[in-house]
Specification:
By secondary structure, the chain is mainly alpha-helical. The protein has two domains: 85 residues, Cytochrome c-like domain (Cytochrome Bc1 Complex, Chain D, domain 2, Orthogonal Bundle); 93 residues, Cytochrome Bc1 Complex, Chain D, domain 2, CATH 1.10.760.10. The protein is built from twelve helices and no strands. It is globular and about 50 Å long. 31% of the residues are buried. The structure holds heme C (HEC) (2 copies). The site of one heme C (HEC) has 18 residues, from α3, α4 and α5.
Length: 230
């Protein structure tokens, strides 16, 4: 009996060593084989385009150059249903995105892409009103240049497409329910359609707006009352 055990032990030890060394090789490969963001982006190209600049009509948003953490959070929100979006829910429920490593690899890939320099903009009316509203209500978090917050929780909104922004601004109170004072939601709730147009238009032009609006002369936008005026 003892002899049998010794034989077994002699066979088992090298066998286990072999199995163990294989496991290490596989683990090491897994560790170096980072999920490939570009590959993960392939199913998104049909709507967001290969450069991630969104659709040419501006309905589907630009993703290129967006904050990594914000992108990851949105994919997770669409997946959980916390953010409603039929197309995005269908894409994000794929099992690939149950792995947070894949989500962050994809978000990292997108955030490193060059942003669309020519977003779809609005009619260009009342940009000064848009600027006033933006400066008072939004710049504190999104930055005067619309680049978003340093800690990456606040998204970049500069040079996003006007049609997408206009739609988002319609829901801005809902969008910000966890982040802002109710005061902002109230102001936005009372904002009229042309004011929302002006705000979204101004944001879509941010980065270029300094050249667009020289700060001295008054433009026609004064015809509309800003939300903070008495
Ligand atoms: C069938 C078209 C379609 C496909 C495919 C698609 N998207 Fe989208 N995506 C949309 C639309 C439409 C919106 C805007 C939803 C809204 O209005 O809230 C959107 C919004 C987003 C947003 C939110 C952007 C923001 O600024 O908040 C992210 C992030 C996103 N998509 C990532 C992806 C990724 C990653 C993939 C691929 C895995 C993908 N999308 C595939 C249509 C699509
Ligand atoms: C207190 C800080 C704060 C203020 C003030 C604020 N935002 Fe935001 N905003 C955020 C945060 C944080 C998010 C991301 C929410 C999330 O993670 O879902 C966001 C998201 C957005 C988005 C969605 C971006 C996208 O790509 O879909 C838009 C558009 C937006 N804000 C516009 C505005 C506008 C316009 C104003 C002014 C009227 C404003 N925000 C004021 C913090 C703020």
């Amino acid at each position: 009996m003892r002899a049998m055990q010794n034989v077994y032990r002699r066979i088992r030890t090298p066998f286990l060593q072999l199995v163990f060394s294989f496991a290490v090789v596989i683990a090491a490969q897994a560790a170096t084989e980072m999920p490939d963001g570009k590959r993960l982006y392939a199913p998104c190209v049909v709507c967001h385009q290969p450069n991630a600049w969104g659709s040419s009509d501006g309905i589907i948003p630009n993703l290129a150059g967006q904050k990594e953490r914000y992108l990851a959070k949105q994919i997770e929100s669409f997946r959980s249903g916390a953010r409603v979006g039929t197309a995005m829910r269908l894409v994000s429920i794929h099992s690939t995105f149950s792995d947070p490593q894949n989500v962050s690899a994809l978000a990292g890939y997108l955030s490193a892409l060059d942003i669309n320099p020519k977003p779809v903009t609005g009619a260009g009316e009342h940009l000064r009103l848009g600027q006033e509203m933006y400066t008072h209500l939004c710049a504190g978090c999104h930055g005067f240049d619309g680049q978003g917050g340093a800690e990456a929780r606040v998204p970049r909104i500069a040079e996003q497409h006007y049609p997408y922004l206009r739609r988002q601004i319609e829901d801005v109170a809902l969008l910000h329910r966890n982040v802002t004072a109710t005061e902002m939601a109230t102001v936005l709730g009372n904002m009229r359609a042309p004011e929302k147009d002006a705000l979204a238009d101004y944001v879509s032009r941010l980065d270029k707006s300094e050249a667009l609006l020289d700060l001295n002369p008054r433009d026609g936008g004064k015809k509309l009352r800003g939300p903070s005026s008495p």
